[in-house]
């Protein structure tokens, strides 16, 4: 009799444990408050479309945000990476959020472009060697787009900014440690000048 009672209590305890643990896997959805943003607040990507009607310019598969320039829009323009070398923006691991400490570099690029209206900029997103090639291409693109959005917020016309992602294909440091990886998680600016 005691064994049957003990077995019944154990079975009941097991059923309750499974029920409680099983319920945690399917939480009820949370209704967002009006005006709130969802997602990871540390890595907030580019926001909504700035130019009304720009949605039609977005190609299938591109992230919705500020419409990209057509491919080759600055083809044949002179490139100069040295001008903005000191304005390279560095990112945290697995993040496309522009750190507050890096915002002054973006502002310096914007100031230069405001003073040199005929010129444009290409923003190159780069990653460290960790992760798959596909993942790093996407992360590099998010980094370039985040920098582009910051330039646009600072008054630079979207048509003067191109973006490209190199993923982990163009490291500046070849080491396999945090010191090297931190230098490779970056966004570079390349000055584009019209042909003369």
Description:
This protein has 196 residues and is of the alpha+beta class. The chain has a domain at 77-193: OmpA-like domain (60s Ribosomal Protein L30, Chain: A, 2-Layer Sandwich), CATH 3.30.1330. It contains 4 helices and 5 strands; from the N terminus they run αββαβαβαβ. It has helices spanning 2-23, 103-115, 133-153, 178-184, and strands at residues 78-80, 89-90, 120-126, 161-167, 186-193. Strands 1, 2, 3, 4 and 5 form a 5-stranded mixed β-sheet that branches. α3 links the parallel β3 (120-126) and β4 (161-167). α2 (103-115) packs across α3. The longest helix has 22 residues, at 2-23. The protein is elongated and about 95 Å long. The N and C termini lie far apart (99 Å).
Strand and helix map with partners:
Elements (H helix, E strand, L loop, with lengths): L1 H22 L54 E3 L8 E2 L12 H13 L4 E7 L6 H21 L7 E7 L10 H7 L1 E8 L3
Helix pairs in contact: 2-3
